[in-house]
Model the fold of this input.
Amino acid sequence: MATLIGNNREQMQMMSFEAFIGKNNPVRLIDAFVDKIELNKLGVKIPGAVEGRKGFHPASLLKLYLYGYMNHVRSSRKLEKECERNIEVRWLLHELTPSYKTIADFRKHYPDAVRILFSLFINLLKEAELIGGKTMAIDGSKFRAVNSSKNNYNQKKIDRHQEFIDRKINDYLAELEKNDQEENNDELKIKVDKVQKELERLAQRKLKYNNLQQQLDNTEEVQISSSDPDSRALIIRKNIVEVSYNTQTTVDEKHSLIIDYEATNENDSKALAAMAMRAKEVSGQEKITVLADKGYHNGEQIAQCEAENISTIVACREQPTVKHLENEYLVENFIYDKENDTYTCPQGEILKSNGKWYNKSHDSEKKKKTRKNITNYRIKQYKTTACKNCPLRDKCTKNKSGRLIERSEHQDAVDRNNKRLLSEKELYKRRQAIVEHPFGTIKRAWGFSYTLLKGLKKVNGEMGLIYIAYNFVRVKNILGFDKFMELLQNWHPDYSGFHFLSVLRSFFSSFRLRQFFHLIFPPQKLLVLYRT
Ligand code: SF4
Done:
């Protein structure tokens, strides 16, 4: 049977690159999108007409990155290769071939510009009514950092290593002492030399751990990472811990489009309010509903959301079992009477408060000492003298003075959240479908489960590129090529306020400071201020 042999490679063809790129090729959308952006207004330097070698226009590099992230290629060395062999990239870049270093520098230098680009794109999606803005799911996802677990240290790990080194040094010193008492010969000399070399090696290691101890003492953190200092060992699931970044992401319910993100090096427990308030600003709505899993169940955060007209539906954490208590005597089974501010216990006794508020904190001793992100809240205490003669006392409490119930100042807000969780079960069930859509695509389908850059700021830049690419692909799937192209062609990006915003943002490097900044000056508020 005859086989297909293809064309003769020597055959000359009269073809332009344009002819190789299909009419509906998505690369045309990337081209149209970036051509609409005035990158200098995003704080990106455009090479001027100076003497010497001409520089690459940043628009070419941005097109290359967007193409790369959408096609699951993000290493600058691989992108450099694509510029030479990939016909779509050659068309997109007008056959320019930047080096991997030039490509990498763009991503490193412009995380703030990427953030603004993301916001401009979200504004376009809002104009196109692709964002519902009423219900959003917030979730954090861990992306492995450029830092192995071996290069992450906490006090326990440093102590363990130092104890091991000290033990080894003592063993070797004892061996040397024993050798001193033996008769001198060649064999002994070799043995002693070996032990002395080991002692020198251990002295070096001890120095390393002393330095790490010093670093840990000088920081407010409870752990340090030596390859990427901003990364932290975070719990991925159950007992699995990895040195990573936790990217907080807000996803709109209507089309599962990402409307906001923030890479952090903290867990989810204190991220709800800041992300929800930013989501409200982005949506431009008076009232929004946010869905979040139990990792976000924090009274202070839920109360803050309520105060901002944000309705939360956050899953409850499982109550820790209290060994000496039977289930019937857990605090949930004590009935709270709001009007009289009392609790009724399962025995029908009334527990009253003296009306005083007491300060309470859940944080570690180090956190309390350094006062970094500490959670202080107030509680009231409730008790009754009836416990003294209660026949069920052994089942209810081990406290000699009787049962003591503590009620947080945020408990009312938590109760309302828990009530909504019960009445809006179907809506809460949608949380996973909304928020897992982007994470499933990005981490599973595209394989972006780790970062390529170091440091919170740069990691934020990379997350911005990933999320722009995700939204871009999603919008193309929702609208189709022609409508998306039409949308881009009629787009007039509004930059007012964004340059000022990028300058201010660059002053804020830590997540907490950025959260604070976002709350006071969310992008939309800044734009309004700027224009008036
Ligand atoms: S010990 Fe006190 S609080 Fe507990 S059941 Fe008895 S009376 Fe009620």
